[in-house]
TrEMBL record:
<feature type="transmembrane region" description="Helical">
    <location>
        <begin position="359"/>
        <end position="384"/>
    </location>
</feature>
<feature type="transmembrane region" description="Helical">
    <location>
        <begin position="107"/>
        <end position="130"/>
    </location>
</feature>
<feature type="transmembrane region" description="Helical">
    <location>
        <begin position="301"/>
        <end position="319"/>
    </location>
</feature>
<dbReference type="InterPro" id="IPR036259">
    <property type="entry name" value="MFS_trans_sf"/>
</dbReference>
<feature type="transmembrane region" description="Helical">
    <location>
        <begin position="142"/>
        <end position="168"/>
    </location>
</feature>
<keyword id="KW-1133">Transmembrane helix</keyword>
<dbReference type="Pfam" id="PF11700">
    <property type="entry name" value="ATG22"/>
</dbReference>
<keyword id="KW-0812">Transmembrane</keyword>
<feature type="transmembrane region" description="Helical">
    <location>
        <begin position="54"/>
        <end position="71"/>
    </location>
</feature>
<dbReference type="InterPro" id="IPR024671">
    <property type="entry name" value="Atg22-like"/>
</dbReference>
<dbReference type="GO" id="GO:0022857">
    <property type="term" value="F:transmembrane transporter activity"/>
</dbReference>
<feature type="domain" description="Major facilitator superfamily (MFS) profile">
    <location>
        <begin position="1"/>
        <end position="413"/>
    </location>
</feature>
<feature type="transmembrane region" description="Helical">
    <location>
        <begin position="180"/>
        <end position="203"/>
    </location>
</feature>
<dbReference type="InterPro" id="IPR050495">
    <property type="entry name" value="ATG22/LtaA_families"/>
</dbReference>
<dbReference type="InterPro" id="IPR020846">
    <property type="entry name" value="MFS_dom"/>
</dbReference>
<feature type="transmembrane region" description="Helical">
    <location>
        <begin position="390"/>
        <end position="409"/>
    </location>
</feature>
<feature type="transmembrane region" description="Helical">
    <location>
        <begin position="271"/>
        <end position="292"/>
    </location>
</feature>
Amino acid sequence: MSAPGRRTVWSWACYDWANSAYATVVLAGFFPLLFQDFWSTDADAATANLRLGWFNASASLVIVLTAPLLGAVGDRAGARKRLLLAFAVLGVLGTGLLAGVPGGDWLAAGLLFTCATVGFMGANIFYDALLVSVAPRERWHAVSGLGFGLGYLGGGLLYLGCVLAALNPAAFGFSSTSEAALAAFGATALWWALFTLPLLIWVPEPAANAGDGTALGGGFRQLAATVRQLRAYRPVLVFLIAYWLYIDAVGTTIRMAVAYGRSLGFEQGDLIVALLITQFVGFPAAIAFGWLGERIGPRRGIFIGLGVYIGICAWGALIQSAWEFYVIAVLVGLVQGGVQSLSRSLYARLIPPAAAGEFFGFYNLLGKFAALIGPPLFGLFGAWFGDVRYSMLALILLFVAGAAVLTRVRETGPAPAPA
């Protein structure tokens, strides 16, 4: 790959380093804790969790309702970078303003969090779609793995710094843990904004998918044409069904790991260490999976990751000690980013490049819908069998079902572009 090509690839992947700070520091780390303990002081834990659930659902609903159309508009107008920037600005501003929300003001915190999350998820539609234009087709697996790898490293480094500041506020010039935690939102916003610049400067905007009329009208027509011609996209549809099943289990593992560990009696410090382990192991592992996808094919790489996940769930149902939780965190880190990165690059090889924005809109839509199955099943299995350990069986079912459907996917080359 030429020097300008390398610069383009690294500039694109740098956005994963940028926005993964939000996923790690805000989504998985500080916001849920502060929302309950700092902003929802007027409510019990159940009410606070209900409020947080509604704000999360609202952000997901916005993306579910708009993602495919926004992607189609980006394709028609040649505006993937501009739309990415618009959503990133929304995310950065929402995140930064959280640092100034006073204690007890759960409504303001929740609304800003919703805006920031919409910005985070919306920008990812166009970031994923840019993959098809930043590198040759045969390099997509490695480039996708590089992005996820940098994301794990960048998010982990910032999260580590924020955790250290929260645990030792005086050493970092803060008067309290709450002040240090609030400052983490400002640091995340700055990080996100700063490391978005390479993509904006050095990643070229793909050419517009020319059509008659306005970009919005053309986007509607392109989306309608895709829906009408779904039979031509059978490999895409089958892959999306498989992806929906297994990425739901991956996401449930991420969302429920801390709660599961706490229910087994592990200390909060153990859970923080486990999250950091996953982040830093995920950095080289995601890159390695990209290399593996080039050597043995992305589908086989995903199968390896899903097989490891099934083993993780079986072990997780029997776990007794904190050291086992650490080992499981290492195993999750080894395969989490790999499954995510190879899924993205395999999907990119199935779709028409000229309509990548629209198709990654569907991809991100399915990613948001994935939360409909896993977490409820996780909770129901524990309730049905009277022991939270049985919740792991629900995840095994999803991984097995996703793998079974994935066997039906054949990489036949990109689908024809919608008329």
